[in-house]
Design a protein that fits this description.
Order of helices and strands: EEEH
Structural class: alpha+beta
Number of helices: 1
Length: 77
């Protein structure tokens, strides 16, 4: 299910929702279905790699490698 940003035409409330294709979204504040789909801002480039590297370093300290591939796990031996 994709995540979309919406602005309600009735009350001007801005929010985001996970929406299925068959679902008609409604404003959580007033219940109106007159919504404007907004363009979502992309994640800043370059920040994700740093977050992943930091999370992997922390996992390495704690010994959590169950969700990493074999080549990403430290070699013990």
């Amino acid at each position: 299910m994709p995540l979309y940003d919406y602005r309600c035409q009735a009350c001007q409330h801005t929010f985001e929702l996970l929406v299925r294709v068959s679902t008609v979204p409604a404003c959580p504040q007033c219940g109106s279905t007159q919504l404007e789909k907004l363009l979502s801002l992309p994640a800043p480039q370059g920040k994700t790699a740093g977050l992943v590297a930091g999370a992997r370093a922390q996992a390495a300290k704690e010994g959590h490698f169950s969700h990493y591939s074999a080549k990403e796990r430290p070699k013990i031996g």
